[in-house]
């Protein structure tokens, strides 16, 4: 049987995505598909993703460190939020918590959340967002 090593940071990322998907009390098929697609894109099988979700770790201590990692995570989380075309209060608050947890300056949190939501609505990619933030 093949053993795959999945970093604790990646496990934390999937757990945050799952938390985001369920925080509006409407865990849709689209959100579930996105979660599994995100895992597949990172070389994680459905079986391994199931194991991560069934055996959660403390993801608060495993936050993205680089700007690229933070953008990737926030992009995925915002895409999960926008999957149904609606941003609920709970989803918005969860995004704010993630932005704060990732170490962004408190007075910029709302603007960052709004920027990511608007960018995902407009169809921007992770790379587009990263380029915007670097300029």
Mean pLDDT level? 89
Order of helices and strands: HHHHHHH
Q: What profile does the largest beta sheet have? A: none
Please count the helical segments.
7
Overall geometric form: globular
The level of helicity is 55-70%
Number of strands: 0
- What ranges have pLDDT less than 50 throughout 5 or more consecutive residues? none
Indicate the proportion of strand residues: under 5%
C-alpha-based Rg, rounded: 14 Å
N-to-C CA distance: 47 Å
What class would the helix/strand composition place it in? mainly alpha
Topology:
Elements: H1 8-22, H2 29-41, H3 46-54, H4 67-82, H5 89-101, H6 109-121, H7 126-134
Helix pairs in contact: 1-2, 1-4, 4-5, 4-6, 5-6
Summarize the structure.
This protein is 65% helix and 0% strand. It is an all-alpha fold and 135 residues long.
Note down, in words, how this protein is organized.
This protein is an all-alpha fold. Helices cover 65% and strands 0% of the residues. The protein is built from seven helices and no strands. Helix 4 (67-82) runs antiparallel to helix 5 (89-101), helix 4 (67-82) packs across helix 6 (109-121) and helix 5 packs across helix 6. The longest helix has 16 residues, at 67-82.
């Amino acid at each position: 049987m093949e053993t795959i090593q999945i970093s604790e940071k990646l496990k934390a990322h999937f757990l945050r995505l799952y938390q985001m998907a369920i925080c509006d009390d409407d865990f849709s098929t689209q959100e579930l598909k996105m979660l599994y697609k995100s895992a597949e894109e990172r070389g994680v099988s459905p079986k391994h993703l199931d194991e991560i979700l069934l055996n959660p770790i403390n993801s608060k201590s495993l936050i993205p460190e680089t700007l690229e990692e933070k953008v990737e995570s926030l992009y995925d989380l915002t895409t999960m939020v926008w999957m149904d075309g609606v941003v609920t209060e709970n989803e918005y608050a969860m995004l704010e918590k993630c932005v704060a947890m990732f170490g962004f300056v408190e007075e910029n949190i709302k603007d960052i959340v709004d920027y990511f939501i608007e960018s995902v609505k407009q169809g921007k990619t992770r790379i587009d967002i990263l380029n915007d933030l670097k300029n």
